[in-house]
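queue> pop job 88
queue> type: inverse folding (structure -> sequence)
queue> payload:
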């Protein structure tokens, strides 16, 4: 499994995560992005005669079946600065999602309150009076999917009627995009968790969701940086 690096310096590493890989190590024994990055960095260090274990800071996450651009920190200082950007909603993330049903409006804003159930690893729509609920906001626009053939989930569904949403994520909640679109009757292609109509005989190791653009401020140089999948 190869590490797909978009950008790297002594402070950060920007990579493309493929669908089916965890963002970080967990209960699964399968390979994850942090392990891939550490293996690459350790290989380089061994060649240079360095024995120190490399530092890899997790800044944000993508669900295992979701592909996209991710940034990891190579130092604790960079991790702290980037983590603050995430907490303050200064890190901008754009997604493409393939919807099974056309939304009532071709563009708009979805605003809900979500509660994450850790036992089932599912997120549910709740009321703003629920003390466990967190506000979730995204903006979307339906775009012509014929213009975006570089994404495999678009090519694979060329003959079928699905709708491509360009999404600006305003908040980063657990399964947010998947839950909010399912709530308005427009679940995502391939989402066995939130799409009750999905045919379970079809491939389920990926969802038609990709974090295609990531914009943030470099933690050391303060330069605005933007990367595409």
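queue> result:
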């Amino acid at each position: 499994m190869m590490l797909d690096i978009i950008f790297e310096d002594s402070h950060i590493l920007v990579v493309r995560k493929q669908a089916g890989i965890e963002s970080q190590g967990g209960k699964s024994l399968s390979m994850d992005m942090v392990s891939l990055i550490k293996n690459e960095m350790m290989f380089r260090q061994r060649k240079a005669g360095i024995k120190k274990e490399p530092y890899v800071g997790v800044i944000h996450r993508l669900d295992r079946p979701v592909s996209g651009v991710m940034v990891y920190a190579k130092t604790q200082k960079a991790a702290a600065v980037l983590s603050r950007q995430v907490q303050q909603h200064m890190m901008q993330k754009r997604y493409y999602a393939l919807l099974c049903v056309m939304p009532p409006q071709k563009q708009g804003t979805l605003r809900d309150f979500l509660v994450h159930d850790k036992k089932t690893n599912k997120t549910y729509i709740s009321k703003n009076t629920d003390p466990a609920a967190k506000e979730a906001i995204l903006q979307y626009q339906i775009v012509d999917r014929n213009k975006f053939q570089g994404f495999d989930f678009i090519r694979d569904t060329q003959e079928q009627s699905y709708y491509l949403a360009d999404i600006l994520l305003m908040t980063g909640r657990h399964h947010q995009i998947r839950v909010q679109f399912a709530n308005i009757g427009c679940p995502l292609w391939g989402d066995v968790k939130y799409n009750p109509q999905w045919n379970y005989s079809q491939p389920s190791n990926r969802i038609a969701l990709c974090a295609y653009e990531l914009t943030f401020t470099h933690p050391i140089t303060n330069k605005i940086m933007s990367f595409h999948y």
